[in-house]
Amino acid sequence: MQTLYALDTQQVARGSDEYFTGDVQVRMLFPPTDHTSFSGAYVTFQPGARTAWHQHPAGQHMIVTDGTALTGTRDGRVITAGEGEVVWCPPGIDHWHGATAQAAMTHLVITGSRDGENVEWKEKVTDDAYRAGQPSTVTESSVQRLPAKTRAIVPIAAFTAQGDMAALGAAIDAGLDAGLTVNEIKEVQIHLYAYAGFPRALNGVATLMRIVGERKAAGRTDPAGPEAGPLPAGGDNLETGKAVQTRLVGQPVAGPLFDFAPGINELLQRHLFGDLFARGVIDDQARELTTVSALASMEGVEPQLESHVAMSFNVGLSHAQLADVAAALAESVGAIEAGRLAAVLASPPPTPG
Fold it and tell me: Where does the Cupin type-2 domain start and stop, copy by copy (predicted)?
């Protein structure tokens, strides 16, 4: 008798953090049976996601159904497989597989079992090993390296948004060495209250204060830099904020979301585009680099990341410069964060209106 595995009976689960890096979804299709010693599953990896090192006692076929798959072995070889291609991994071979940093990937895996076991998990794949296996898709002409001082903003913003204070301390130390002033880094933290929330912005300021104190105790004097300017006369930044928002977006902002909740746009105009942008210290380009770096380092905010990439273009940053932001994220923060930005940069720009 034949067996139907109905769609609503297929188990869907998120890939365990113990065995996967990044966002992975596993959809079991069929288990081993008394007559078959193999199982099947669809596995979807978001950009930058991959398995840990592992091996299969009875081997595994990987059939790519969407996107581009990477699979590497201990000897440093990495196979790149496209849609419709199949990779066979023999029994007992340590390997990993996953998506590129730029795009999601789904493959169908047919995994053999031996003595009731189908996988032996090992340690996670490091970011360095994963980056080394990336296909070369970026040419020299597609990247315009940012000045070291500007580039140093990227990990500072990313680690502030993630709440990783240990990594943030090292990034602040490197940023001061690269020429950022104390007030410029302070302004990055203040700006991020609107995107990462007051708790992480305050923790960021506290980390900056600690690093500056440690450097001073070691005999190093860091320039404070210009202070923030006064707010516009009258203390009402609504009109100022509307003008800044329109300049960044390229047109007056309207739409169903703000029709539904007009108060949130007024708060954006008064406090974000009004109060914050009126402070000075860092310019519009630095503020957008700060925002893009932070949003790329947070889960679930892809629509906002797409919007701020578009705003970055409107304030004069180039596609090549934003590609360097993605490269800086890959070097200093992680492949997943870089992949989020790279995926936006690889997508066609939205149609106006």
Answer: 42-110
Helix H or strand E encompassing 186: helix 182-191
Distance CA 87, CA 52 (A): 18
Query: How big is the chain by its Cα radius of gyration, in Å?
Result: 24
Q: What tokens were used for 66? A: 């969407």
The length of the chain in residues reads 353
Of 58, 159, 145, nearest in space to 109 by CA: 58
- Calpha distance 341→323 (Å, rounded): 8
Q: Distances from the Cα of 311 to the Cαs of 61, 151, 165, in angstroms?
A: 44, 18, 28
Specify the 3-state DSSP secondary structure of 22. Answer: coil
The C-alpha angle 3, 6, 11, rounded to 5 degrees, equals 110
Q: Which of 296, 13, 319 is nearest to 153 (CA)?
A: 296
Please check whether residue 186 is in contact with residue 208, taking contact to mean a CB–CB distance below 8 angstroms. yes
Q: What is the pLDDT of residues 247-305, one digit of tens each?
A: 776 667 666 767 777 776 667 766 667 667 777 788 888 888 999 999 999 988 888 89
